[in-house]
Each structure stands twice: as structure tokens, then as C-alpha cells.
Amino acid sequence: MAKVATVAVVGRTNAGKSTLVNALVGEKVSIVSPVEQTTRNTIRGIVADPRGQLVLLDTPGLHKAVGTLGTLLNRMARMSAAGTDITCVVFDASQEPQLEDIGWMQRVAKEKPEKVVFVLNKADKSPFFEKMFRDAWQEASAPSTSPASPGAGTSAEGAQAPSTFPPLWVKSISTTEGGAKPVLDALFGFAEDGELLFDEDIVTDYPRKLAIADVIREKYLAHLHQELPHELGVVVKRVADEGSRWKAEAEVLVNRPSQKPIVIGRSASTIKAVRKAAERELKAIFGVPVSLELWVNVEPGWMKNKKLLAEMGYLGGLV
Questions:
Q1: In angstroms, rounded to a whole number, what is the distance separating the alpha carbons of residues 241 and 101?
Q2: 297 pLDDT exceeds 90?
Q3: How confident is the model at residue 111 (pLDDT cuts 50, 70, 90)?
Q4: What integer best gives the mean pLDDT of the chain?
Q5: Among candidates 3, 4, 22, 43, which has minimal Cα distance to 179?
Q6: Is 121 in contact with 91 (CB distance < 8 Å)?
Q7: Is the pLDDT of residue 60 over 80?
Q8: pTM of the predicted protein model
Q9: Which of 29, 82, 87, 209 could form a disulfide with 45 if both were Cys (CB 3.0 to 4.6 A apart)?
Q10: Per-residue pLDDT band at 295 (split at 50, 70, 90)
Q11: For residue 14, is pLDDT > 90?
Q12: What is the pLDDT of residues 245-281, one digit of tens each?
């Protein structure tokens, strides 16, 4: 019998969740960028191991929400842990604990999931704030001194009972080979006997259109950096399987007319570079040549347009 578990990989934006998921799976299933809001969907990466199978849910990073899209991403991140076997909270321990890190600790302390792994990521960096994170957890999980309503979880004095489950702490260097092994071992330590949830050769069940859109957006993030990352969206309208190759048509959305020349570039240099880079990666991912046709449209307020957000897969079960 194999060891099996579903795992919600959560944490604040840019903590390194997608890099960790890719390292655990052994293949790239999530796009990676230093830009906030890189991951906008919940992506399932499937780990095949002699011990069994882990289904990892890579979620949007918790951040200070601005607008409809930001609020939806935060809600999706918070909901992702519900119904999974293990909650894996990833912290960027190369920085001091941030407000969103404390928020996840408080959520864990309040909800008390049975199996929790706290990952102190980027353990190769200096300084490394392990003690500050452990101290922050002690404070977040300490008994409350504020009056509490009668019922379960309160002491005779009315204070909340302290957390009775210690999270398992591990360190990770997701960018180096073998650096994520402590996380993998910790997760399989919590996994239980069961039937495999997916065929052994599947690394993700992420829809093809959304995967192609994510790769295109990742290449734009690499070219444009902080110029307009949050105001750029990609919708794959059509994927045609022509046997030996695929042809995909995608629409790149911007909010304002002034952004369109930036996305296209002088003499179409940016859009050509993005197309070529995306085609190379898509061929590596899917094993067949993928020909991309990209066009850029101005869609004011697209981040508030629920029809477009649904087409991009950002709404999921949130509506």
C-alpha cells in the first residue's frame, strides 16, 4: 500500500512556494518570478516517489489585496487549505517575519489543522531569521488574555487554550538539487496508506489552456519586470492539436492604451521575444512543438471583469 496525501502549499507572496513545488515534483508545473502575484491559480503538482504519491496544491501568495483580482487571489489562497490532509506553510526566512507570515501562523493556531509543516525557505541565505519565526509562532499560538465566549477551547479563566499541536519545522533550499528533501521527508512522514489519486506518470492536472497562458505571462514578467505585471492578463482562446504540433491563439490584455506599445515593443521586439521564449518552454513541457499566435487588446478594468476572470481560471469555486 502506498503513502498518499494532499498538501496545501500556502504562504505569503514570493516566499518561494512555486519553486518549492517544482523542486518536489521534479518538473516545472508552476511559473516562477520575483514579481508579486506570479501564481494566480491553484495548481496541482503530483509527486511520484517510491514511498507513494503527494498531491501538492500551489496557491496564490497572500498579499495586500488591491482590487477585485487581488481580493479573489487572497480568498483562493485561504480556502486552499480546507479539505487537504497536510498544511505546508512556506516562509521566506531570509527576511524578518512579515504581516502575512504572522497571519498564516495565527490562522494555523486558530484552526489547529492536525498535520502542519512550517518550511523555513531560503536556508542558504544570510542572515537567516529562524529564531524570529519560531518566536513569532510562540506569540501567535500563545493563550489569549482577552475575554472569550464560553465553550470549547477556553480555560476556567476564560482565556483561549494554547495550541496543542506543534507544527513540524523544516529548512529548505528549493533552488538547489536535493535542497527540498527535508520537506519531502516531512510530508511523507504525515502521509497515510491509501490508493494513488493519479496515474504515476502524471505531474499535474492543470488545464492545458491555463498552463499555456501561465507560460506566456511568465515570459512577459521576465521581460517587463515591474513595469506593468499586475495589469497584464493572458487568455488562451483556442488550442488546435494538429498531430505533430499544436497551434495556440492567445489574447494579451492590458488596462490602458498607453500600455499596448510596452507589451508589443519597438518593431514588435517584445512580443516576438516572448513568443519565442514561450514556444521553447511549451515544447519542453508538452513534448510537441507549440506555435503561438499572440495579439494585444486594451480591455479597461479587465481585473474586475468576472467573465474574463472566470475564463482565466481565477474564480474557480469562488462564485
A1: 43
A2: yes
A3: confident
A4: 80
A5: 22
A6: yes
A7: no
A8: 0.65
A9: 29
A10: very high
A11: no
A12: 999 999 999 989 999 999 999 999 999 999 999 999 8
Phi and psi at residue 313, in whole multiples of 5°? 85, 10
Tell me the three-class secondary structure of the chain, residue by residue. Answer: CEEEEEEEEECECCCCHHHHHHHHHCCCCCCCCCCCCCCCCCEEEEEEECCEEEEEEECCCECCCCHHHHHHHHHHHHHHCCCCCEEEEEEECCCCCCHHHHHHHHHHHHHCCCCEEEEEECCCCCCCCHHHHHHHHHHHCCCCCCCCCCCCCECCCCCECCCCCCCEEEEECCCCCCCCHHHHHHHHHHCEEECCCCCCCCCECCCHHHHHHHHHHHHHHHHHCCCCHHHCEEEEEEEEECCCCEEEEEEEEECCHHHHHHHHCHHHHHHHHHHHHHHHHHHHHHCCCEEEEEEEEECCCHHHCHHHHHHCCCCCCCC
> How many Å apart are CA 217 and CA 215, to the nearest integer?
5
* C-alpha cell recorded at residue 267: 518593431
Burial zone of 2 (CB within 10 Å; 0-12 exposed, 13-18 middle, 19+ buried): middle
| C-alpha cell, 146 | 482577552
Q: Is the peptide bond before 127 cis (omega within 30 degrees of 0)?
A: yes
Q: Residue 154 pLDDT more than 50?
A: no
Backbone angles phi, psi at 92, to 5 degrees: -85, 95
Contact at 8 Å (CB) between 55 and 198? yes
Mean pLDDT to the nearest integer, 88-96: 95
